[in-house]
Amino acid sequence: MLPAIRPRAPALAVLVSFFLVFSTPLTLAQSAPVLSEPAFSAGYRVVQIPYQSSGLSLGVWYPSNDLASAQTVGSRRQKSEVALNGAPAAGPFPTILFLPGYWECGTGSAFLTQTLAEHGYVVVGIDYPEDALCASDPNGFVPSWRFDFIHFLRPQWWSEIDTFYYRNLETKAVLSHLPAINEQHLNHAMDTQRLGLLGHSLGGYSALAMGGAWPKWKINSRLKAVVSLSPFLQPLLYNAHLERIHVPVLLQGGTLDITNTPSQSEAFDRLRSPKHWIVFKGADHVAWTNAACGDQGVHACLANNPRAKAMAGYTLAFFDSYIKNDSSAMDRLTAGSPEIEKRAHVPLGT
Question: Any residues with CB less than 8 A from the CB of 295 and at least 6 apart, and which?
């Protein structure tokens, strides 16, 4: 039997609502959430963990006091400024799992992951071998030839124990290995009880599912916050329960992200508070990936691309507010910016 399909808005209505959402004027403060000078260098190393027959490859960023230098990370040789295999700074620091999009890998958003490490987070980027076309380990890349793109054309058929369920299993495997990674590679710099999720596209979907939208994906009480960047929301709007997500959520979208951002208004309405939503001017679906930086290193990218800098700044402010309990971070999170087209902030209890 085919699953019941909930009626959706006609295409014209979707286009009309898309226009209304993004043409609504907002009065914003003129000061963007400026990134402070990094407190640390970003260390980076590749970690392999056992999983089934082939294991999983992880790209790990972390605070370090060692001198960073120009390096490339991952099989796509993204330019970055890191202390390659540097010594971790004394922690413990909160942990962020980075869940990349379809055909991406754990190094796919280096301007975000490096920035978080420079400001006091350990970031673990996950390679999902079933759908990655790149790798965190530049010497261990084996491309995936499994093409499940047809799933994106029929979101009403997705279920929590079927479509892309391997992402749930592999993320949980990474979670179970965090204590060993902490001991063997990071000199106990990682605080595994203060956990956040950062995901883009299919990774954004996965992050919301693990926040509680799919009960079988849900992470326990150590999960403190979720940032979902241009997530593929349609399966969750059809069949899941966004209102069950038990942690603060920040949704990010873009005015040129015509496939995913139009669904964010309905998703935001369903989420519990506290919840936050930011739509960036001119951002398309890949604006949160390394495509934002092109051939530049991360520091040059943030200096030359104000939208990328704003994305990093708001992401950092959100995690600082809800994971580090930094009382000043909410002002940064709710500040206006010329890079923003639309924003909404609903604090706890609203």
Answer: 79
